[in-house]
Specification:
Elements lengths: L2 H11 L8 H18 L2 H18 L2 H4 L1 H9 L1 H16 L2
Helix pairs in contact: 2-5, 3-6, 5-6
Bound molecules: zinc ion.
Zinc ion binds next to helix 3 and helix 6.
């Protein structure tokens, strides 16, 4: 499920309350994001690492596109090594 879907579901839940500010929902989503970053396992990382490295090599905006992956890389030296290795391979085969 992507963030937009979550956003819509939350909006539906709170629909009767028109006074609920979007700001509140955004803050709520930020918290969800934080939780997900902590919960992301190294297995999930590997599934996304290819995409992340490709974005980085092509447009250098991987961090913006996939902030959760970047966050995990900052916390997890094991995945960071994998990332560096993959980046190396991709950059040398261009
Ligand atoms: Zn990891």
């Amino acid at each position: 499920m992507n963030i937009k879907n979550i956003f819509q579901r939350i909006q539906n839940i709170f629909k009767p309350r028109d006074d609920l500010q979007n700001e509140v929902i955004v803050k709520f989503l930020r918290i969800l994001e934080d939780v997900r970053a902590e919960d992301m396992s190294c297995d999930e990382m590997f599934n996304r690492l290819d995409e992340f490295v490709e974005a980085e090599v092509q447009s250098h905006d991987a961090e913006k596109l996939m902030p959760l992956v970047q966050e995990h890389l900052n916390m997890c030296s094991h995945c960071e090594e994998e990332y560096e290795a993959l980046l190396d391979v991709l950059e040398n085969t261009k």
